[in-house]
Amino acid sequence: MTTHYPDTAGQVLLNVAFTRAMRSVLDQAAAARGQRPADFLARAVVEAVERAARTRTRQLTVQLQDLLPEHTPEDVLACAARVLLDHRRPPSGPSGVADDQRRSAAHTTP
C-alpha cells in the first residue's frame, strides 16, 4: 500500500495492490454487503482509522485517570501543557542534554 498527497478535494488517495486470493476475499465481502469493492475497502479503512483513534483516546483517558489519585487535576493539566509546549520547540544544546533537562522539569509541579 502506498499513500499519496491529498487531492484537490482533500481526500488522501491510496494505491493498494492485492494478491488474487485477497482480491477474491474483498470481492466476496463487498458483494455480501451490496457494495463495490472500492467502496467497501474505503469504508473499512475509515472505520479502522476511527477505531484506532477511539482506542488511543480511551488509553490516554485511562492513563490520565491513573494520575489523579496522586496529583491534582491542575497539576496534571499544567504538566501536560509544559510537555506539549516543549514538544513543539526544536531541541537545543549538545546531544539532547537540554531535552533530558526539559523532560525532567516538565514532570515537576510548580
Question: What does it look like?
Answer:
A two-stranded antiparallel ribbon has the order 1-2. Mean pLDDT is 83; it is low at 102-110. Helices cover 64% and strands 8% of the residues. A hairpin with a 5-residue loop joins strand 1 and strand 2. The protein is elongated and about 55 Å long. Helix 1 packs across helix 2 (37-67). The protein has helices at residues 20-32, 37-67, 73-88, 97-106, and strands at residues 2-6, 12-15. With 110 residues, the chain is mainly alpha-helical. It contains four helices and two strands.
Please give the order of strands in the largest beta sheet: 1-2
Mean of the pLDDT scores? 83
Gap between N and C termini, in Å?
47 Å
- The proportion of strand residues reads 5-15%
Please write out the topology.
Elements: E1 2-6, E2 12-15, H1 20-32, H2 37-67, H3 73-88, H4 97-106
Antiparallel strand pairs: 1-2
